[in-house]
What we know:
This protein has 287 residues and is an alpha/beta fold. 33% of the residues lie in helices and 23% in strands. The protein has twelve helices and twelve strands. Strands 1, 2, 3, 4, 8, 9, 10, 11 and 12 form a nine-stranded mixed beta sheet that branches. A three-stranded antiparallel beta sheet has the order 5-7-6, covered by helices on one side. Helix 5 (101-113) runs parallel beside helix 7. The radius of gyration is 19 Å and the shape is globular. The protein starts with 6 loop residues before the first helix and ends with a helix.
Amino acid sequence: xxxxxxxxxxxxxxxxxxxxxxxxxxxxxxxxxxxxxxxxxxxxxxxxxxxxxxxxxxxxxxxxxxxxxxxxxxxxxxxxxxxxxxxxxxxxxxxxxxxxxxxxxxxxxxxxxxxxxxxxxxxxxxxxxxxxxxxxxxxxxxxxxxxxxxxxxxxxxxxxxxxxxxxxxxxxxxxxxxxxxxxxxxxxxxxxxxxxxxxxxxxxxxxxxxxxxxxxxxxxxxxxxxxxxxxxxxxxxxxxxxxxxxxxxxxxxxxxxxxxxxxxxxxxxxxxxxxxxxxxxxxxxxx
Length: 287
């Protein structure tokens, strides 16, 4: 089956109010071409699940697309805090659920296993139970010891970015897969962008690096530099310069509007052109 789609076709299938799991981690291998298309769409009241978020969550908050964020962390690592996330968190402009990295994984795993919750000792004795009413402290029916029930996270859609894919929807992730496989398996519909489409025969040479199987993917988009400005190892590094520009632009309304005009409201082709084209990005960021 040929699952090739355009970026806009993917966004058309994402419902307003939907629960969206986003793969990658912080400033690494985020599906930013898909996220930017979602940010410039008319979709509203999105509920976002992210283990370790970065520019993906921050951009969607900055463009007013989000109603709730379920997260373990959102930030720009050594570059600092995520500005739109910080403001929204401080003003309670949208709803937030504080999870941990492990409990996000456990919630997705519960959905995959088709159980209502995942039992764990994680978060016992911490303030997570105080700030997150979604978790319930219960008793182990065998030992009567306290454990925590982490509710299943059932995304409507998962968005991920991979290094390579074939038209059937198999995806290669080189290096750390983060929580992408869990997102793909737990979601009703998974869409992935890739740096390059390969034949199925070529893809098989990657063996265990074929981490996303076609049975879990609904569509695939060929989008070179689709993770930019986050990195996509080993293909290219994180664009620290662009992220620094993003952070400066986010400090004022005028700067943010200018950033949106130049880098959000345009399609992926124009986005790359506004960076000087792929050749410029290769010269600066290619590993």
